[in-house]
Amino acid sequence: MPVYTVHQPPPRKDEVAAAPERFAFVRDGFYFWAFLFGPFWMLWRRLWLVTLIYVAAVTALETGMWALRLPEAARAVVSFLLALLIGFEAGTLRRWTLARRGWNDAGIVVGDDLEAAERRFFAAWHEQPASPAAPRAGEAPMPKADDGAIIGLFPQPGAPR
User: Fold this and answer.
1) Would you state the pLDDT for residue 109?
2) Bridge pairing between strands 3-8 and 24-28
3) Angstrom distances, CA of residue 33 to CA of 37, 87, 111
4) Contact by Cβ (8 Å): 27, 91
5) CB hemisphere CA count around 51 (13 angstroms)
6) Residue 2 CA neighbour count, 13 Å, CB half
7) Exposure string (b/e) for 91-129, b if CB count within 10 Å is 16 or more?
8) Which domain holds residue 17?
9) Do 83 and 32 meet the contact criterion of CB atoms below 8 Å apart?
10) Domain-located, residue 155
11) What is the distance in angstroms between the CA of the first residue and the CA of the last residue of the chain?
12) Which one, 22, 23, 86, 96, has the greatest CB density within 10 A?
């Protein structure tokens, strides 16, 4: 089942909070079209800085491979591996771009498809209390630590084993 990260845009001038229609759901996983058409996919998604970095990296790689006089087979393997990396990291590149544009991470949601994930997220989002300590939609509340409680794998110093 796909996992999506949810990103909330900054509010516009006439908004108190961003409209739910503007939220972005970014699927975690492999992006086939980003693998196949890397720079075009980046431009389609308006990842301008990512595209610029990609073009600079490809230019540097091609120049380096040309200077080392690598055979065409090695150059093809390097190009394939770079495309594979873009396919696997496309979601991360989108999340990074959204964060740079001031979008907030609103939570994580799991759903069979995008529509199911949106329904599940907004159902939990509307039920959520408006306190700052409340968990984000789709997340379990954090357990509160007691004085003698063990958190994680490390016991308290001096506690019996």
Assistant:
1) 92
2) antiparallel
3) 6, 7, 21
4) yes
5) 13
6) 20
7) bebbbebbeeeebeebbbbebeeeeebbebbeebbeeee
8) 3-127
9) no
10) no
11) 40
12) 86
Two structure tokens written together for 61 = 């790689």
Mean pLDDT of the chain: 84
Antiparallel, parallel or unpaired: β 24-28 and 104-110: unpaired
Task: Tell me whether residue 152 is in a domain.
Answer: no
- Say how many residues make up the chain: 161
Alpha-helical segments (H) within 37-71: 38-44, 48-67
Distances (CA, A) of 148 to 134, 142, 152, 161: 24, 17, 13, 13
- The model's pLDDT over 19-75, given as tens digits with 9 standing for 90+, comes to 888 899 999 999 999 999 999 999 999 999 999 999 999 999 999 999 999 999 999
The residue written with tokens 């990074």 in the block is: 96
Each residue's pLDDT tens digit, 144-156: 555 555 555 555 5
Has residue 15 been placed in a domain?
Answer: yes
Cα distance between residue 5 and residue 100, in whole Å:
16
Number of structural domains found in the chain: 1
Q: Which amino acid is at 31?
A: Y
What is the tens place of the pLDDT at every residue in 87-102?
999 999 999 999 999 9
Structural domain includes residue 146:
no
Confidence label for 140 from pLDDT (cuts 50, 70 and 90): very low
